[in-house]
Amino acid sequence: xxxxxxxxxxxxxxxxxxxxxxxxxxxxxxxxxHLADTLKVRLAALLPGDEVRHLxxxxxxxxxxxxxxxxxxxxxxxxxxxxxxxxxxxxGKHKPQIVLYGATAAGRDLAPxxxxxxxxxxxxxxxxLQIGTHKTAKDGEVHENLLFxxxxxxxxxxxxxxxxxxxxxxxxxxxxxxxxxxxxxPNHHGVIVTEAVSLAQDDLPIEILQEHKRAKKVDLKxxxxxxxxGAGVGSKENFKLIWDLANCLGAAPAATRPAVDLGFIDHxxxxxxxxxxxRPSLYIAVGISGAIQHQAGMAQSQxxxxxxxxxxxxxxxxxxxxxxxxxxxVVPKMIRAIKEKGV
Length: 343
Ligand code: FAD
Known about the structure:
Blueprint: E1 10-13, E2 16-17, E3 20-21, H1 23-39, E4 43-49, H2 54-61, E5 66-71, H3 80-94, E6 98-102, H4 105-118, E7 123-126, E8 128-135, E9 142-153, E10 158-162, E11 170-174, E12 191-195, E13 225-229, H5 240-249, E14 252-255, H6 257-261, E15 282-286, H7 292-298, E16 303-308, H8 314-318, E17 321-324, H9 327-341
Parallel strand pairs: 1-4, 1-6, 4-5, 5-12, 6-11, 7-11, 13-14, 13-15, 15-16, 16-17
Antiparallel strand pairs: 2-3, 8-9, 9-10
The chain binds flavin-adenine dinucleotide.
The site of flavin-adenine dinucleotide (FAD) has 28 residues, from α6, α7, β16 and α9.
C-alpha cells in the first residue's frame, strides 16, 4: 500500500501512440493544472514510451511542471504488463497524491491494473474532478483536500461524488472530451526527469509481431457541425436523411445509442455517456428524445437545434431552436432550403 502523502504531486498519465499524444491526455492537463494549483503542489506528466522525449516539451507547454520520461523499446506499443510495471514503480518511488488517466481503451485497461496492484481506489469515467473537504459519517473525522471524483451513476440518473481518503494515490479515469482542450503556453517551464526502465521480453506475456490499426470512421470531437439521428428516424434507409442533411452542411453524422443498436449507423458515430462527448458549434438533433445519457455527450454544444414531433421531448428543453414536427417533412424542407439559398 502507498502512504498518504499530502505533499504528493498531481500526475497525468500522458498516453501516446506512435509518438503522438492522445487528445484526452492533453484535455486532462488543464483540469490537473487546476487541481495542482488548488493543492499548491506540482503537476507532473508520466510519459512511458519509446523515443518519445519530444513529447515532454509539448506536455510542459500544456502545463506540466515536470515530466517523468520512461523510455524503453518494450514500451513502444501499449501493453498492460509493461506499462503497469513501470507506472507502479514510479508511483512507489515518488508517491503522488493523485493519478489521472484518460478513459481511453488503454486508460481503462491500465488504471484498474495499477489500482489493484497498488491497493488504491479508482473511479472510472469521471465527468468532473474537484478538491474538497469531507467529514466521515462514522466518526466525524474531517479529511481536507480530497479529490472529489464526480461521475454519473445508476444509469445516469444521479451524479455521484466519490472520495477515497485512505487508499492513495487517489486515482480516476476521465471521459474523453469532457474537459476543454487547453491552449499550449510556450512560456511555461518545466523539468524532464529521465527514469531508468528495466524491462525484459520475459516480463511480458505477449510479443507483438505486427500491428494493424483500424481507422475511426468519423472524428466527432473535431466536428464543428453535427447532425445526429435517433430511433425516431425509423430505419437505416431513412437514416439517409441524416447523411443528406449532414452532407449539405459539411457536418459529421452522429447518432444515439438505439440508432446504433438498431444498425442505422456504426458505433463510431454514437454520442453520449457510452459514446463520444462532443461540443460542436451546432448540434442538430433529429428524432432524438434527449435522454440524460445522450445529453451527457452533447449538452455543451454551443447551439442546439432539435426536431421532434413530441412537444414534451426532453431534448426540446435544452434546445436553443425547437422544431416540433415530423422529421420526414422538416428535414427534406431544410435540405431544399439549404441547397437553394446556400449556407
Ligand atoms: P427514443 O428515446 O426512443 O426517442 C426517439 C424520439 O424520436 C422521441 O422523442 C420521438 O418523439 C421522436 N420521434 C419519433 N418519430 C418522429 C418523427 N417522425 N419526427 C420527429 N420526431 C420523432 N444513449 C445515447 O444516445 N448515447 C449513449 O451513449 C447512451 N449510453 C447509455 C448508457 C447507459 C448505462 C444507459 C442505461 C443508457 C444509455 N443510452 C445512451 C440510452 C438512453 O438512455 C436512451 O435510451 C437513448 O438516448 C434514447 O435514444 P433516442 O432518443 O434515439 O430514442
